[in-house]
Amino acid sequence: xxxxxxxxxxxxxxxxxxxxxxxxLLAAGLALSVLVALDELSLxxxxxxxxxxxxxxxxPWRLHDxxxxxEDTRSVNPVENGAVAAVVAGMxxxxxxxxRAGRVIHLNAAAAQLAPALRKNELAQFALRSxxxxxxxxxxxxxxxPRRATYLDHVPVDRWMELVITPVPVPTLFGGTDKCxxxxxxxxxxxxxxxxxxxxxxxxASHELRTPLAALSGFIDTLQGPARDDPxxxxxxxxxxxxxxxxxxxxxxxxxxxxxxxxxxxxxxxTCVDLIPIIRQVADGLxxxxxxxxxxxxxxxxxxxxxIAGDREELLRLFENLIENALKxxxxxxxxxxxxxxxxxxxGAPEIRVLVRDFGPGIAPEHLPRLxxxxxxxxxxxxxxxGGTGLGLSLVKHILNRHRGRLLIESVPKNGAxxxxxxxxxxxxxxx
Length: 432
Ligand code: ADP
Fold this sequence. Notes:
The chain is α+β, with helices and mostly antiparallel strands.
């Protein structure tokens, strides 16, 4: 052990090739000693030959080593080998390995795609021209601490990335150590989007609640003041107050339903339910609204049960939203058809599709992709007039997500709209 330690401490600062030279010298010394012993060579000549061999073997190495350690060792050969390139290439996030001057040694495909200006053997500072990044790079070069910076990309879409520059000590060819910088990018765009959505949601929800609340307190003031002794005005204002209070209650109800469904989004319902009685129950419940709007609801459903894995209460809510929307926004068509069919999804999996078709004004194509966003409405005034909250289709989408289904929306302006709820068909003992 002691021997090992002393030999390793003797040789360890020497790189491999220097060690090899020492072995050659030992062999030469041995050979010369044999020649001297055999009287083939005088001692002085043997010594001179040995000195020449020693000089030839050691001096150039030592000179090279000293020169290399003195100069700015940009050629950090160990990091230029294939294994390091493979590690950088295999990193899932965009990653770039830089030398101590900031010159790119390796970069992976994700980094090349993210910042096409980054090129091998060129300075990263020129490619990523943000002052924040340049400062972080300079600090990382000067210290041993990782530095962070923000990288913003606007093409083709806005992206927020956190850039981490980690100084990495690496051995040089000649036994010293040098420094490289590993620069990795972490995509914060999804987090930012969620944060933005959360802020938008809070702003929208409070705005939606404040509007009826302002109306209520305004009418209370009027009833306590100028309309105190006017029974007709009182009657009318109380009616409006009732509508506003109902709207607030509905909004809170929808918000709670939405958060409940979101909380359980990862748990797929495991009870088997028959869709037919659920749809019929909703249609029957909406009959008074249909009569009021002078719309006929046509039910085209099979006589036999259609079983899916579902949550009964959520499915009632889903169909209530779709059919009620058709009655409210498509009333001018005078007809709403609710039908069911079997079809195949995009991936070819069997699906149960429930279609709610109306013959109203339809929806312009530019609104279709945004209809399931919270609080998104084609016409806010119309929605409010109809008692809408702007949360109905968002709730429908979340319920369908939880059921591992999807919502299809097709519409031809002036020719109505069809909302289709698709559920995966499951083969269960009950369904069989
Ligand atoms: P709301 O509570 O306003 O009804 P929804 O999320 O249910 O909110 O619907 C969002 C918007 O989509 C509605 O405000 C309306 O503009 C539009 N919409 C929904 N269903 C229909 C339909 N059948 N025909 C025309 N527009 C519709």
